[in-house]
């Protein structure tokens, strides 16, 4: 029986949601280039596309956006639960707890309306917990703002700048979906048992909490900080890390053998942020140096910048706290998770892989 550690190169599902070409460095959403969508579309356009299989007309987009706005506010029971949770609980744990408690009409198969409720409520939960962690009251959603602008508003209490909205929109569009990653696979496995949508999303949140999946942007910031505070040159510091066998966070990807197309798009987005020219040039210089050194120390591995490298740079430019990075990722990826759960339900078979026993045998 074939054994593939980590299920590498094992196909576990057919999908019409997204396609990744790791050799060419491309990412498609329902046949559209994700990079191009990040430049020209709003988050609502892409959420509709992923959930429905086609881009919306203007009327469909208006209806979809209006529906999301009506679903944003936290119900009173969730507000009470949020206030009762331990203050030292991590934001990911709080998000998972609140999602698991978000009741509604659910069953099998999951319905579009359930997915929209989760897409709408996740930003509100994240922002409410962020404010509670800072000793502040939650900020109610503003129905005059679109999905991304409203999220930034709920985090800060201030109407965001257009450049900041555009930058975060691009990031959220580019991270809304990415194939059979660990959290998406977890969601589909749970959905294959005919569990409800909330259970599948909570499983995905649990998978995303791990440092190897959802924690990478924080590691990139630590890398930036090490370089900025080092007494030696950037090259010397990076060489020392590689010689100690440390991983350079923000570089390398299980799928892409060239620069992550999402990183290319976010590099361009970073240029649009005001007063970020120096930071951008530093980030680009570090990327080029690290890529050269990785080719030297790990020849043949083809380790290039991934989405988390420039995501960290954008999060820093927007002054989002590191604890908010992974939950902000959830604000977008919940769209992909829901899309996969719905797709799984349409042609379901319970996931049941085999294992290869390598323990002791009886005499």
Overview in brief:
With 363 residues, the protein is mostly helical. It contains 16 helices and 3 strands. The chain has 2 domains: 14-211 and 323-346, Citrate Synthase, domain 1, CATH 1.10.580.10; 216-317, Cytochrome P450-Terp, domain 2 (Cytochrome p450-Terp, domain 2, Orthogonal Bundle), CATH 1.10.230.
Overview of this protein structure:
The structure is a single chain. The protein is mainly alpha-helical. The protein has two domains: 14-211 and 323-346, Orthogonal Bundle (Citrate Synthase, domain 1); 216-317, Cytochrome P450-Terp, domain 2 (Cytochrome p450-Terp, domain 2, Orthogonal Bundle). The chain is 57% helix and 3% strand. The protein is built from 16 helices and three strands. The protein has helices spanning 34-40, 43-52, 58-71, 76-84, 91-100, 112-133, 147-156, 162-174, 182-191, 197-208, 216-229, 234-243, 261-271, 277-297, 307-317, 325-346; strands at residues 18-21, 26-29, 32-33. It has a three-stranded antiparallel sheet. A hairpin with a 4-residue loop joins strand 1 (18-21) and strand 2 (26-29). Helix 6 packs parallel to helix 7 (147-156) and helix 6 packs antiparallel against helix 16 (325-346). The longest helix has 22 residues, at 112-133. The radius of gyration is 21 Å and the shape is globular. One of its GO terms (biological process) is carbohydrate metabolic process. One of its GO terms (molecular function) is citrate synthase activity. Pfam families: Citrate_synt. Pathway: Carbohydrate metabolism; tricarboxylic acid cycle. This is Citrate synthase.
């Amino acid at each position: 029986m074939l054994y593939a550690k980590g299920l590498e190169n094992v196909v576990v599902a057919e999908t019409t949601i997204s396609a990744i070409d790791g050799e060419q460095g491309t990412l498609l959403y329902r046949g559209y280039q994700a990079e191009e969508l990040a430049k020209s579309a709003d988050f609502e356009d892409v959420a509709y596309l992923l959930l429905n299989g086609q881009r919306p007309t203007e009327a469909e987009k208006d209806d979809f956006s209006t529906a999301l706005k009506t679903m944003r506010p936290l119900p009173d029971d969730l507000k009470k639960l949020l206030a009762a949770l331990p203050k030292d609980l991590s934001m990911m744990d709080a998000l998972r707890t609140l999602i698991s408690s978000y009741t509604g009409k659910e069953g099998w198969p999951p319905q579009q309306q359930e997915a929209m409720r989760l897409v709408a409520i996740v930003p509100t939960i994240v922002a409410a917990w962020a404010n509670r962690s800072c000793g502040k009251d939650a900020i109610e959603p503003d129905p005059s703002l679109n999905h991304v602008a409203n999220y930034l508003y709920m985090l800060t209490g201030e109407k965001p700048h257009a450049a900041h909205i555009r930058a975060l929109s691009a990031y959220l569009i580019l991270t809304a979906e990415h194939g059979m990653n660990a959290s998406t696979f977890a969601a589909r496995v749970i959905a294959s048992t005919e569990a409800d949508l909330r259970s599948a999303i909570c499983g995905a949140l649990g998978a995303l909490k791990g440092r190897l999946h959802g924690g990478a942007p924080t590691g990139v910031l630590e890398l930036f900080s090490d370089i900025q505070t080092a007494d030696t040159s950037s090259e010397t510091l990076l060489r020392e890390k590689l010689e100690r066998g440390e991983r350079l966070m923000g570089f390398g990807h299980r799928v892409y053998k060239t620069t992550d197309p999402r990183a290319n798009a976010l590099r361009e987005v970073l240029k649009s942020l005001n007063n970020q020219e120096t930071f951008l040039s530093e980030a680009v210089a570090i990327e080029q140096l690290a890529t050269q050194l990785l080719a030297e120390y790990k020849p043949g591995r083809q380790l290039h910048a991934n989405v988390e490298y420039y995501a960290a740079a954008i999060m820093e430019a927007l002054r989002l706290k590191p604890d908010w990075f992974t939950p902000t990722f959830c604000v977008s990826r919940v769209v992909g998770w829901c899309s996969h759960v719905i797709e799984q339900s349409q042609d379901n078979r319970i996931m049941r892989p085999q294992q290869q026993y390598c323990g002791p045998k009886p005499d």
